[in-house]
Design a protein that fits this description.
- This protein is an alpha+beta fold and about 120 residues long.
- It has a single domain (about 5-120), classed as Sufe protein. Chain: A (Alpha-Beta Complex).
- The protein has five helices and three strands.
- A three-stranded antiparallel beta sheet has the order 1-2-3.
- The chain is globular, with a radius of gyration of 14 Å.
- The mean pLDDT is about 90.
């Protein structure tokens, strides 16, 4: 299975890996078929318009290279952005930013988005 340079880089040196104590939102998603599990932590603040901004984001992923790379790049994509913006990201956006994923690993791109949506749904309001 061939991975792009971006996938390898994010797998070897993942960005935003870890947890956030007293996170404002935490979401978890898993794939029972492949066994990958991701947990996402968000620290939120408000911008001048009163919108929720993702001030800090961390992830913990147990899974394959693709799952870790997806988690890493997704956190890069949403850090500093509004929740509305973050929730509009699609799997194709993630796959494109990673320089592609093997067809058998496309499902990994959904794991991060599911964890993000779960975190937003579970956030402290």
């Amino acid at each position: 299975m061939l991975y792009s340079k971006q996938v390898i880089n994010h797998f070897k040196k993942p960005h935003n890996q870890g947890s956030i104590k007293n996170a404002d939102a935490v979401g978890e998603a898993g794939n029972p078929i492949c066994g990958d599990v991701m947990k996402m932590y968000l620290k939120l603040s408000k911008n001048k318009k009163g919108q929720d901004i993702i001030k800090e984001v961390k992830f913990e992923t147990l899974g394959c290279a693709a799952a870790i790379a997806v988690s890493s790049i997704l956190t890069d994509m949403i850090k500093g952005k509004t929740l509305d913006y973050a929730l509009k990201i699609k799997k194709d956006d993630i796959v494109k930013d990673l320089g592609g994923l093997p067809p058998a690993k496309i499902h990994c791109s959904m794991l991060g988005l599911e964890a993000l949506k779960t975190a937003v749904d579970n956030r402290n309001k």
